[in-house]
Amino acid sequence: MNRTYVIIATVVAIALIASAAFIIYYQGQISDSEIEALQNLVDDHGYKTSLTAYPEKIVSLAPSCTEILFAIDAGDKVVAVTDYDNYPYDFAAWIAAGNMTSVGDFTNPNLEVITTLDPDLILASGGVQEESVGTLRELGYKILVLDPTSIDGVLKNIELVGNATGKRAEATALVDDIINRINTVTNKVANAAKPKVYYEVYYESTSSWTIGALAWQNELIEKAGGINLFEDQQIDYYQYQVEALIDRNPDVMVLPASGMGTGQLEGLEAIKARPGWDTTSAVQNDRLYQIDSNIIERAGPRVADAIEQLAGFFNPELF
Amino acid sequence: MSKVEVESTFFKRTSRWKLIVLLLVLALIMTVIVSLNVGYAQIPFPDILGILGKQIPFLDNFIDSSLISPQNEAIILQIRLPRILAGVLVGAALAAAGVLYQGVFKNPMADSYVLGVSAGAAVGASLSILSGIGFVFLGLRLVQVAAFIGAISAMFLVYNISRVGSRVPVATLLLCGIAVNFFLFAVVGLLEVVAGDELHSIVFWLVGGFSNVLWRDIWAVLPFIIIGVVAAYFYARDLNLLAMGEETAHNLGVNVERSKQVLLVLASLTTAAAVSISGLVGFVGLMIPHLTRLLIGPDHRILLPTSTIIGAIFLVICDDLARVVATPFASTLELPVGIITMLFGAPFFIFLFKKKKQSYAA
Asked: Nearest CB to B74: which of A246, A265, A266?
């Protein structure tokens, strides 16, 4: 009797331990398609990176990269960010409290800090960071450069980072959510009048800058139901002639606040008082809007937020 | 030479000079009128005349303003005209100051960078940009006031460092000026490193430009530039004598130290006024005096007024080019005028120099 119980108990115990071990073992394994994706990560510059395991230490060299990592629940692997990072958390406070490392400036990330951290993966953006990226690659680090120029590019990047960090499901869910939100906006504005939109990059007495067709914001304005005032210009960010703005007469002005824009500093009244600007419909109808420059300048997961806000500016009665 | 012969040469020369100045003034007026037509917006010339005519009392009764769009009126009166006049003022000021610097230093390389004036303006402007304060002082923005104060302070700093007893030797002034210039531009470099988001503002200011200049900016700097240039004209004879060496000038009755002091203050004042509305527009102050010397001669009594007018014409044309040359790539694109002055000015200068080098005397 006692022996029987002991045997049964032993068998049950062995079975439980075995199945538990098997479950633990199986969960640690990743599927073949996931392994394949992990070994074939191709970034926006066509550079192929191959990882053998999901990274435990990630350094993010751009706020847009950090936003993607946190949005797909991979934020706990981030060990360092730049001084410009401020979303979704107040990283400056984290850094001050010693809970996060700073790689310093966005343009010149501190390579010594990065090599000391010895990350498994680095996410960077293009442009000014290319020199640092080249150096880090030569040092043998695995780097993904996220340099999207379109909404599709951002969605692809979210999936790429999902594949690289083992957050495929989260990435797919985020992409679906962004697509749904953008579709909702485009459906609402489909039959609405399309205002001509001036988007300010910079304005001072020395020069004035806006966006042409190749800037990232051009597509956001389009999706939100507006027309970039300078969408016929095959250029991204450029110094424009203010008389062209007066001549083309925008219906709406979008002024990113903080960051590079001067909108926040001057205030809307000063903008309306700029020479000749009082002749535009936008000023006459008081349709000047400020938007958080971080939302609209970063090609990241808040792209749907940017489009929703813009759409609200362009057709307030629909939202 | 008999007395009659001397008198007749003198009258011939002064009447030739008067003719040259008159022709240059006409050329400047023509340049301004042509420039009013240059830009993205296609505004018919009769409309431009109508818009300008409307501003003249009595004449406005004869103009049918219903045909003129408020947009075109704003473009001409509030954008193109101030911009062209800023080109006139800044070009004139930088060229006149260049004549004075080169005359006082007897050095063909001398310009507003030599006394640290440009660098001082750059430090003032950068600091005010970083302060993030956009406040307006007597109708001027802080960056303009700060650039002006920076320029004048740098000049006084260099002048006082170089003082040896009651004299200020030109060689000392030149070397101290260059040292201070490097030091101040190092400060600007440092400010750029810590500038973060404001870096663009500093960079654009250093490149120079007056695309969005305001009428009140022009009124603010106008008196400084006019007083500077006119006052300097009374020292043209002293500059001629200084060219023969300070000893000779002293023996011929020039108060050398006093003249140098006054001329440097006037040059720095006009430069400071100009850069406060334009940022650092390079090469005009260096090149125009040489160009004028090649064309007209080294006598400062004619060199100063003609350089001033040619400088004005040159910068207005450069600003026209800034609005035109890039439009094949994108119709609303413009280039920074400070880049045009060097990109087009330098090859033009070399061309003239090669052509007329046999007759050149600095």
From this structure: A246
Q: Cβ contact (<8 Å) for A241 and B211?
A: yes
Q: Using the beta-carbon criterion (under 8 Å), do B278 and A206 form an inter-chain contact?
A: yes
CB A307 within 8 A of CB A223: yes
Tens of each residue's pLDDT in chain A, 319 residues: 678 888 888 888 888 888 877 777 766 667 888 888 888 899 999 999 999 999 999 999 999 999 999 999 999 999 999 999 999 999 999 999 999 999 998 888 999 999 999 999 999 998 888 899 999 999 999 999 999 999 999 999 999 999 999 999 999 999 999 999 999 999 999 999 999 999 999 998 899 999 999 999 999 999 999 999 999 999 999 999 999 999 999 999 999 886 444 444 467 888 999 999 999 999 999 999 999 999 999 999 999 999 999 999 999 999 8
Partners of residue B204 in chain A, C-beta under 8 Å: 202, 204, 206-207
Q: Which CATH code, of 3.10.270.10, 3.40.50.1820, 3.40.50.1980, 3.30.1330.30, is assigned to A32-181? A: 3.40.50.1980
Domain ranges of chain A: 32-181, 191-318
List, in sequence order, every residue forming a beta bridge with B137; answer none if it has no partner.
B140
Set of chain B residues whose Cβ sits within 8 Å of the Cβ of A235: 329-330, 333
DSSP class of residue A29 equals: S
Q: Which of A203, A243, A262 sits opposite B41 (nearest CB)?
A: A243
Length of chain B, in residues: 362
Q: Are A275 and B204 within 8 A, CB to CB?
A: no
What whole-number distance in Å separates Cα of residue B358 and Cα of residue B91? 28
Q: Which CATH number fits domain B41-359: 3.30.420.40, 2.102.10.10, 3.40.50.1260, 1.10.3470.10?
A: 1.10.3470.10
The ipTM assigned to this model is 0.89
CATH fold for the domain made of A191-318:
Rossmann fold (3.40.50)
Instruction: Find chain B residues with C-beta within 8 A of A199's C-beta.
Output: none
Strand partners, B136: B141
Q: Which residues of B touch A (CB under 8 A)?
A: 39-41, 70-71, 73-75, 78-80, 82, 132, 134, 141, 144, 197, 200-201, 204-205, 207-215, 217, 277-279, 323, 329-336
Between strands A101-102 and A78-81, the pairing is parallel
Could you state, in order of their start, the residue ranges of all structural domains in chain B? 41-359
Contact in structure between A82 and A59 (CB atoms under 8 Å)? no
If you search the block for the tokens 């009665």, which residue do you land on? Answer: A317
